[in-house]
Amino acid sequence: MAELVVILAAWWRAITARDGPRDLPAWSTYILPALGPLALFFMIVDLLIHPIFLADDSIQNYTHVWYISQQLFHHGRIPMRISALDSGQAVTFPYGFTPYMIGAFLFRVFGNWAVSFLMAVAVLGAVWAAGLARPIIRDPWFLLLFVANPYFIDAVYAFQFPTLWSTVFFFLFIWAFEGRRHVLAALLLWLTVSTHPIVGGAAAAAYGLFLLVLDRPKVRRLVLLAVPVGLALIPFYWMMLQTPALRENSLRTIVSSVADVLPRRGSILLLPFALTFLAPYVRRFYRPALAVAGMMVLGVVLFETGPLNQYHETYYGALHGSSDIYAAFFASPTFKPGANYRVLEPTEREDGMYYFVRHGAVLGNEFFSESVFRRNWSEQQYRCFTAFKAVDFVVIERAYQRHYHTDEQTLLRSLVSQARASVAYEDPPGRFTVYDIRRFARERQKPNSLNQCRLF
Asked: In 3-state terms, what secondary structure has residue 102?
């Protein structure tokens, strides 16, 4: 055993010492570059031990995969809309077409864990594919910088499922295209963009600009490849534009949301190219480069999960599992399958919505933050909104109130005191309250558009 350890240590030192940084002590050759694979291993195991991984954007993926699987195996069809979300208006594939379809088949065997497994594969696949596209990432010293990108960590713990799968396909597309595997490259480009039309589309456009500036001879090949792929992507952009959250929010809200997402997720896609270009300087000044990466990770973690966070714990699922706090309510006669519920809970643990849907309820929203409308309300706005969404019951968790401090519960209590709504169910431990607002929501006719509610 001792001999094996010595052999492995010698092998590791040979790999890490070759072209290693010059500004680090010798002992770091063993320890520092090992942090990248260890961090990657930790994240993958953390995903795999949770059948349902709680995060900002996780439950939408579990819900879509479950619903597609149900429709495939019980009704023999691929649904274009999800009847249980946003009063039946939600689009099944605003993104994630291929991984969702694969997940639907795996769900039949593994249940919820199939989604956690596919997410773990995407995390590992993104690193592997980045190493194919830009071999510098295979160097343990540069692998550490790639994994230490705080927005890569954020993509994992915010459960950016379609984004990471689009990242996998994008790096594979680069590898295939630059290796003149044109048919495979076309398929991978289609997978990149169809999996996430915004992130994947922006990545493809950025790569085109990169070639236009630095490698013009390849531009013609890319254009010839992109034209048929672009035509094949039209249905996916059409489905994306059918998403109710896009139609129900102002252009300013949508643009600001995209502007917030693209730089963070784009940093994952850009880093292998930047590290390749800057490799000589990174090797020479590795100590400050690693220090900057470490400070960025610390800053993001503090702002997202630590004492500086004022809104929600993005990485809640790293240390917590899912539990069905609504089990007793579902078993009671008060729960009405088929009714429309507005369920308000912290964004990083929306598993309650998932349990509602699986018990036969309809949600009055999608899982996008822009669809939930966590905000303060006037009575007129709220009546118009709940009438448009055809909401029957509003469920508010105590944890939601602690996180967002909106006036919605105060408004509901006022409606109860006026006998225009009622308390349908109170959780004995006090974790949530269910309000019956059918009388209030029916006080006005359903508006033709949410724009009539003057929410913006």
From this structure: helix
